[in-house]
Recover the amino acids of this structure.
């Protein structure tokens, strides 16, 4: 089929042409309602529901041949939908129940049809509303540990991994991240955007030689450390939740990159939400209580990820990096345990580095986060943004001294002190 961008009318005809959907997911006498909900940066997204039986519902996601946030002047290959579909299928295999089920896909039309998650909410919005998510730590740490371990050299044989890497080159979206995360925010670039009230902080970052040297190191790791199949865009806008369920969506950036990038993205987004409550939660007691809850999630995600990753590793050490026979000598068991400790400790330090860079890019690059941009008062928004920049710089610069997740949490706490004082001053003048 020749590619064409669908709309709310043509999508009905298309759905009826797909035997995996029409007469399977939908009854053949279904009357379809279509709603276009694609508010993202790259794609069209439709929710399609049977008016007669609303439980029959799917989501259709189609790639456009340009960067939606920038318009048709910024062309992009539609091949990204192939990568997203393959990643969804692999994630369903490795972490079943934690990603949407794939019902059908059409590479010619650059689209995938999958489980409708409309009864869940984007995690950002749940966190801004101060909802408690009792299963999130368990769910996301399981997703991270399983998807990252089972696509790494710790589990895959050399040829297995190389063949899989060839399926996930994803050169165009990788280049987008290389530019928009690791390069453009730290120099003059037309798409950059920031709150004028933090202009001094932005300019200080751009002229900080020591910091930019470390950012360049993290960019090199992002470009060249092909450790595992990473989601590569795993923020709280790519996770849907309710009190019982967690679903990771939108893996269109997936490629073989550094394990710590995904972990750092999750932790950094949780901390951004922590900071957003300087604008969203005026009552100090209510704010402090929820911020502590968010920091508990940060602690839990790392600790549970590290525990599960090592546990899976011990049980499944079939890869060629450090195979079980390598440790077959007196004292080998202890040596293997020490290697695992060093490996996971390195991941924590790199998590701090990649997470730190992502703090900065969100404050001064092309795309911020809704948690922060939805703060109406630019002064209160600047409180959160300045704190995010300070935390990001310290996570990057101090990463090689990090020994535990508490070190990263302590940086957040320390940089919250001036934020609290700044907010108090704003509130006292209202």
């Amino acid at each position: 089929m020749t590619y064409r961008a669908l709309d709310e009318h043509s999508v009905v005809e298309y759905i009826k042409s797909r035997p995996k959907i029409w007469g399977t997911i939908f009854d053949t006498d279904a009357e379809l309602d279509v709603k276009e909900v694609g508010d993202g940066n790259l794609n069209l997204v439709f929710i399609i529901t049977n008016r007669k039986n609303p439980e029959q519902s799917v989501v259709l996601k189609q790639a456009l041949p340009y960067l939606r946030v920038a318009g048709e002047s910024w062309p992009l290959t539609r091949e990204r939908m192939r990568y997203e579909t393959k990643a969804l299928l692999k994630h369903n295999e490795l972490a079943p129940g934690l990603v949407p089920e794939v019902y059908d896909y059409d590479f010619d039309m650059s689209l995938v049809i999958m489980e409708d998650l409309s009864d869940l909410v984007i995690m950002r919005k749940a966190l801004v509303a101060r909802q408690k998510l009792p299963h999130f730590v368990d769910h996301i740490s399981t997703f991270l540990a399983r998807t990252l371990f089972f696509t790494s050299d710790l589990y895959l044989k050399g040829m297995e991994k190389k063949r899989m890497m060839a399926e996930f080159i994803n050169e165009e979206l990788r280049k987008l991240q290389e530019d928009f995360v690791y390069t453009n925010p730290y120099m003059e670039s037309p798409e950059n955007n920031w709150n004028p009230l933090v202009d001094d902080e932005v300019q200080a970052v751009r002229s900080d030689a020591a910091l930019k040297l470390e950012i360049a190191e993290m960019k090199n790791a992002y470009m060249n450390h092909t450790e595992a199949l990473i989601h590569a865009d795993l923020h709280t806008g790519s996770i849907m939740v309710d009190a019982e369920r967690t679903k990771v969506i939108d893996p269109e950036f997936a490629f073989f990159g550094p394990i710590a990038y995904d972990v750092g993205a999750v932790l950094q987004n949780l901390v951004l939400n922590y900071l957003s409550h300087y604008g969203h939660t005026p009552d100090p007691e209510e704010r402090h209580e929820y911020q502590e809850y968010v920091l508990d999630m940060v602690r839990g995600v790392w600790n549970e990820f590290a525990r599960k990753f090592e546990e899976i590793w011990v049980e499944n050490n079939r890869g060629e990096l450090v195979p079980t026979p390598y440790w077959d000598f007196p004292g080998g068991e202890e040596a293997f345990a020490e290697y695992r400790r060093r490996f996971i400790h390195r991941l924590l330090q790199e998590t701090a580095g990649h997470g730190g860079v992502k703090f900065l890019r969100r404050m001064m690059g092309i795309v911020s986060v809704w948690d922060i941009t939805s703060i109406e008062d630019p002064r209160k928004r600047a409180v959160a943004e300045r704190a995010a920049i300070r935390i990001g710089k310290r996570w990057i610069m101090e990463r090689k001294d990090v020994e535990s997740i508490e070190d990263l949490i302590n940086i957040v706490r320390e940089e919250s002190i001036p934020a609290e004082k700044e907010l108090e001053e704003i509130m006292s003048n209202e």
